Model the fold of this input.
Amino acid sequence: MTGHNHYVMCAQFHPTDDLVVSASLDQTVRVWDISGLRKKNVYSSPDTLQS
Done:
């Protein structure tokens, strides 16, 4: 899967759905549908995102 423009710093699999959430130094968080290998949503912020 491609999409982030910088290093991915963390990723988390959803326990029951075919989803992965990834966070990158490009200041985006992306939700991926791994059954179809495609992006579902992209969230971005001009500020640092923390969880």
In short: The two ends are 23 Å apart (CA to CA).
